[in-house]
Amino acid sequence: xxxxxxxxxxxxxxxxxxxxxxxxxxxxxxxxxGMPTVDLVxxxxxxxxxxxxxxxxxxxxxxxxxxxxxxGGQNAWDKPTGAFTGEVSPQMLADVGCRYVILGHSExxxxxxxxxxxxxxxxxxxxxxxxxxxxxxxxxLAERESGRTDDVVAGQVRGSxxxxxxxxxxxxxxxxxxxxxxxxxxxxxPAQAQAVHALIRGxxxxxxxxxxxxxxxxxxxxxxxxxxxxxLAAQPDIDGALVGGASLDAPGFLAIARAFAG
Length: 262
Ligand code: PGA
Description:
The protein is an alpha/beta fold. The protein has helices spanning 18-30, 49-61, 90-95, 106-111, 116-128, 141-145, 149-160, 166-169, 190-208, 210-215, 226-233, 250-261; strands at residues 7-11, 39-43, 69-73, 98-103, 132-137, 173-176, 217-221, 240-243. Helix 11 links the parallel strand 7 (217-221) and strand 8. It is globular. 2-phosphoglycolic acid (PGA) binds at residues 11, 177, 182-183, 221-224, 242-246.
């Protein structure tokens, strides 16, 4: 574990109706005590964000304290406002209480054809709105098996962060999510994950300087569960997790967070 403050985020994806979202958000906030050393984030479907944010605040208020759980969007458009039917701007996310936004998730890269250039525009827009982008990168199984992991990930990092200065890179969270590990139950080994995290940090160093790179948090994502979180957390360049399926269960999500809390 490094000196960087770990960050564990739950990506709920397109799961949960209102009632379930309310309960899950309140449960996570209420169980978040005793973990002052880790940043917790939940990323609900956009239509639930307002309600989830209210639930988190209300749950914290029952204990007479401020919320520990921050809210994030799962995606945003690259403009603040305008004729973009069906889209949500980063300003809108910030306005309803989000502090984070996941950008470039592999599901969006694949299903919605988001290129590195698209992700780059969204990262810039999110930063301009005051949000912390969680920028996702990761190789497919075919790319790994043909020995192209490093090139693919490096290309995604360079493309997604193109044109950003050190001060902007310092504001990012990066999530390394091998596509073959997402939702498959097949987690990267700690050594596989650490190797790519170290590669990403080295690349950030060349883009923004070693000091900045040393402060950027790099999450691992892909079938993180309570029973594999500790060995991932023990790796020097793994600073947290982006959790999909396991984040839909409050005790499981909190168990993962505890593994990173040290
Ligand atoms: P998973 O998803 O934990 O269900 O594998 C991770 C993600 O897609 O962020």
